[in-house]
């Protein structure tokens, strides 16, 4: 029995967690769960749009008021009958409530790609430490404290005294004169770009750290590095805490435009909060103190740059999309609220035009596209997909709004890559037998990005969908997985209720396929128009770099089969993983790399897809799976022909 | 099936499957009837071409169709319109209603706007297409100049919703809202947003947009008529 009330508050209990407390009327179930530390999955941050926070009300259902239209969008009739609601939309009223959080809505362990291409870089950090044994002042040596330090740096290490200076804060706030004397004139000078940014007692030269961070719209990846050796000492990652304020960069920009300065502050504090958590975690793991982090570097797309540095973001979202600052920029970490050495600097790598930011620059940096004779191409897959192509003569880049479908958004049973997510699907083209694998082999609760690429590819090869991405209804006679839902839409069962972690069938709907088609068409259009603009075809590409958060987990052949990018033989593919993180690390440990980044940003030419006259037509052609003109996909064409899906004229063969 | 029903059906079916040749041929047959004084061009457009396009919109909405099919159908419909529009008496076009349409300032995505425009044209309205990334003041001046009944605004992006709000406010400030109603639509637009900025209608897709425009125009025309009568009484 659950308690009725206490001072006009009503008890909410969450199962299977068993956590409970009293809450005032008007509290949403999501809010109560947060207070109690019960993790309920959410992507939209409580706006009722993502439908991920399904919970079952086991007691007190009637008190919660009628089901809202936003809920019926995400709940099947069965679920409604079983008293399912969306936790973010339902408020407690005048009765206690017992809530069951099904497996499907629990937040599992998140799998995020943080590793990236390791590119050997000789350490040449902007921060250096010098141990100094200073001569004690006497009546015959009355040099000022400041001069004494600078002279020692010049005498003992050959630094140019005329260029050097000691930071005002070091002299004033850190009491330089007292510090030198307390340390018996044996100190370590921390020099950042001709500026002594700190004086530490004794010899601390072996403790010199920096922090590199990739600010993705969906996730943050941070790397604590030993600057002397150029090595990573700890890695951490988090979801970007800005997600509740907008799933993609554009909705976050809108959040700022409609919410003003307050909203802008909130976004900035959110991302800095997430980064600080990673810093804390890395420091703890590696036994490093915050004030041993002397510099930080950041990469991210233009929107991330703007939110992080608090640039007014309107105009980058309005045609013709100019950024506010293109070049790399230094900002004191303290000004941004970051937890490092109080006088350390943050360096945000340069960006390009449009939405193409420092993350794409980092890919070009890590792959050395701009140094090669042969033409290479890269695709950095994400909510915003970025594409670059070229060689030492010219590299051009563009970006396309591919949307978050491959991250599980807008997909009925889509989810991020965490425990219980179906990550791999195969369908035997002749027996139509389906196999799938989930993350950590847990019962299936949803489908994540890598499987969302497999599914259309496997369905196509099995002839369950045609090259228009439409379910071939006649195939329902051959497989019971294909069926018409109660709502009248065709769907295909990936995992049956009896084997799923949620007790319901996990399906892919016709609507899901349409979303995936739109997303992949945007990517393909970006790649195709980029090539055409350069007068190139896929045959000219000698290497194809695949970057992005889930890059390493995807099946590149299936991605090609659905036409995410032009058809290239698989031996040309190189996975570069989180290249953005690699770029941030390279820039952190080497000033040469920073100069190189500036050079890339100057030399790489941005191409705005929207001005391409063929955009609409190409986008339409790219919606076919893999593409309208199959002759552009000879390998896939051959495969489909062999499987008996098409005739010699590339026409789809439907079953009798 | 009578000959006229057969032609109308062939026009509609041709649009649905995106068969330009079939639609052109059927439209030409209808044109012959119009020239012989037996039929009206307007009926051919509304009950043939637009009826087909409405089915296309519904098929897209329920995910049966995907974008390339919609575009093919739009092309087929335009082929039919090219035949029938010139036969429409000048007065008839403006009389049905005048619409200023465009993608708001800052946005250059116009696929959706073009589809709505095609359907509005098919429905017999006089449509002034302002294109994309249209400055707020241009919408206002065009609405004034043409005495448009409806201003239809589209945007796919969310930041540019701000421009939609600006047009709404500007029309209000200029005192045009009695005679000119607004309808908004596009990827990121919702009915909730419509309520927030005080626009008169929201079309969640092209089919709904056309229905709503029709209602708006009826309202405006009635209001104008009432005003005219009130004037007369004085």
Description:
The complex is a heterodimer of chains A (656) and B (234). With 656 residues, chain A is α/β, with parallel strands linked by helices. Chain A folds into five domains: 5-105, Roll (Ubiquitin-like (UB roll)), CATH 3.10.20.30; 127-201, Ubiquitin-like (UB roll); 212-348, Domain of unknown function (DUF4445) (Nucleotidyltransferase, domain 5); 367-403 and 517-636, ATPase, nucleotide binding domain (Nucleotidyltransferase, domain 5, 2-Layer Sandwich), CATH 3.30.420; 405-513, no CATH class. Helices cover 28% and strands 23% of the residues of chain A. Chain A has 17 helices and 28 strands. In chain A, strands 1, 2, 3, 4, 5 and 6 form a six-stranded mixed beta sheet that branches. A six-stranded mixed beta sheet of chain A has the order 13-12-11-14-16-15, with helices on both faces. Chain A has a six-stranded mixed beta sheet with strand order 27-26-17-18-19-28, sandwiched between helices. In chain A, helix 7 (249-286) packs across helix 8 and helix 12 (510-533) crosses helix 16 (615-621). Chain B is α/β, with parallel strands linked by helices and 234 residues long. Chain B folds into two domains: 1-88, Orthogonal Bundle (Methyltransferase, Methionine Synthase (B12-binding Domains), Chain A, domain 1); 93-234, Rossmann fold (3-Layer(aba) Sandwich), CATH 3.40.50. The longest helix of chain B has 28 residues, at 206-233. In chain B, strands 2-1-3-4-5 form a five-stranded parallel beta sheet, with helices on both faces. In chain B, helix 9 links the parallel strand 4 (181-185) and strand 5 (201-202).
């Amino acid at each position: 029995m659950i308690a009725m009330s206490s001072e006009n508050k009503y008890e909410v209990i969450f199962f299977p967690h068993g956590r409970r407390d009293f809450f005032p009327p008007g509290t949403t179930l999501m809010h109560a769960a947060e207070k109690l530390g019960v993790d309920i999955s959410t992507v939209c941050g409580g706006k009722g749009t993502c439908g991920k926070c399904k919970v079952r009300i086991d007691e007190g259902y009637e008190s919660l008021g009628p089901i809202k239209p936003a809920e019926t969008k995400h709940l099947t009739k069965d679920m409604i009958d079983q008293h399912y609601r969306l936790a973010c939309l339902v408020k407690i009223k005048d009765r206690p409530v017992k809530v069951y959080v099904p497996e499907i809505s629990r937040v599992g362990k998140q799998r995020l790609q943080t590793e990236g291409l390791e590119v050997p870089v000789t350490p040449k950090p902007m921060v250096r430490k010098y141990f100094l044994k200073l001569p004690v002042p006497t009546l015959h040596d009355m040099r000022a404290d400041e001069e004494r330090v600078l002279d020692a740096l010049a005498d003992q290490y050959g630094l140019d005294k005329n260029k050097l200076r000691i930071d005002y804060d070091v002299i004033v706030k850190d009491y330089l004169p007292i510090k030198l004397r307390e340390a018996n004139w044996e100190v370590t000078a921390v020099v950042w770009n001709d500026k002594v940014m700190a004086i530490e007692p004794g010899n601390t030269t072996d403790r010199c750290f920096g922090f590199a961070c990739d600010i993705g719209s969906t996730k943050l990846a941070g790397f604590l590095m030993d600057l002397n050796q150029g090595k990573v000492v700890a890695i951490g990652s988090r979801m970007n805490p800005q997600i509740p304020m907008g799933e993609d960069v554009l909705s976050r920009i809108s959040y700022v435009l409609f919410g003003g300065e307050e909203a802008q502050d909130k976004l900035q504090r959110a991302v800095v909060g997430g980064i600080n958590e990673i810093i804390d975690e890395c420091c703890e793991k590696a036994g490093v103190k915050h004030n041993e982090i002397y510099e930080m570097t950041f990469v991210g797309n233009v929107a991330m740059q703007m939110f992080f540095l608090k640039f007014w973001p309107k105009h980058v979202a309005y045609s013709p999309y100019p950024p506010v600052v293109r070049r790399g920029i230094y900002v004191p970490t303290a000004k941004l609220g970051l937890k490092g050495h109080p006088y350390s600097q943050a360096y945000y790598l340069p960006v390009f035009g449009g939405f193409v930011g420092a993350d794409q620059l980092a890919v070009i940096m890590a792959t050395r596209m701009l140094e090669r004779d042969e033409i290479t191409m890269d695709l950095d897959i994400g909510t915003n997909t970025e594409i670059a192509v070229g060689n030492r003569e010219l590299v051009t880049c563009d970006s396309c709004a591919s949307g978050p479908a491959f991250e599980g958004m807008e997909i009925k049973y889509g989810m991020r890559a965490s425990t219980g997510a179906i990550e791999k699907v195969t369908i035997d083209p002749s027996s139509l037998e389906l196999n799938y694998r989930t993350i950590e082999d847990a019962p299936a609760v949803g489908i994540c990005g890598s499987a969302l690429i497999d599914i259309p590819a496997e369905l196509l090869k099995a002839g369950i969908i045609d090259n228009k991405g439409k379910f071939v209804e006649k195939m329902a006679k051959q497989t019971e997985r294909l069926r018409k839902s109660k709502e009248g839409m065709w769907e295909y069962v990936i995992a049956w209720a009896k084997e799923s972690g949620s007790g319901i069938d996990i399906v892919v709907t016709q609507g899901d396929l349409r979303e995936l088609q739109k997303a992949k068409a945007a990517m393909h259009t970006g790649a195709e128009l980029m090539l055409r603009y350069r007068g190139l075809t896929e045959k000219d590409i000698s290497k194809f770099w695949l970057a992005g958060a889930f890059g390493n987990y995807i099946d590149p052949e299936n991605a090609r089969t659905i036409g995410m990018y032009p058809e290239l033989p698989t031996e040309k593919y190189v996975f570069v993983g989180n290249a953005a993180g690699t770029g941030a690390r390279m820039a952190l440990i080497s000033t040469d790399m920073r100069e190189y980044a500036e050079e890339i940003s100057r030399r790489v030419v941005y191409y705005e897809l929207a001005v391409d006259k063929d955009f609409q037509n190409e986008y339409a052609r790219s919606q076919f799976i893999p593409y309208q003109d199959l002759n552009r996909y000879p390998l896939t064409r051959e495969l489909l022909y062999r499987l008996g899906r098409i005739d010699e004229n590339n026409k789809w063969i439907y079953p009798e | 099936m009578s000959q006229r029903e057969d032609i109308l059906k062939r026009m509609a079916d041709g649009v649905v499957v995106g068969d330009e040749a079939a639609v052109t041929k059927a439209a030409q047959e209808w044109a012959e009837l119009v020239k012989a004084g037996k039929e009206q061009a307007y009926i051919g457009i509304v009950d043939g071409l637009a009826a087909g396009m409405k089915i296309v919109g519904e098929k897209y909405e329920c995910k049966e169709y995907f974008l390339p099919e919609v575009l093919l159908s739009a092309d087929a419909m335009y082929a039919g319109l090219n035949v029938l529009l010139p036969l429409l008496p000048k007065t008839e076009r403006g009389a049905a209603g005048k619409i200023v349409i465009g993608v708001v300032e800052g946005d250059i995505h116009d696929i959706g706007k073009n589809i709505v425009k095609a359907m509005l044209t098919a429905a017999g309205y006089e449509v002034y297409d302002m294109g994309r990334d249209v400055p707020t003041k241009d919408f206002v001046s065009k609405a004034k100049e043409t005495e448009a009944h409806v201003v239809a605004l589209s945007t796919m992006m969310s930041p540019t919703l701000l421009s939609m709000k600006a047009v709404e406010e500007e029309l209000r400030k200029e005192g045009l809202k009695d005679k000119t109603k607004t309808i908004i639509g596009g990827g990121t637009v919702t009915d909730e947003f419509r309520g927030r900025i005080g626009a008169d209608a929201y079309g969640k897709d092209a089919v709904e947009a056309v229905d709503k425009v029709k209602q708006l125009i009826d309202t405006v025309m009635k209001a104008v008529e009432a005003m005219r009568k009130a004037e007369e009484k004085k």
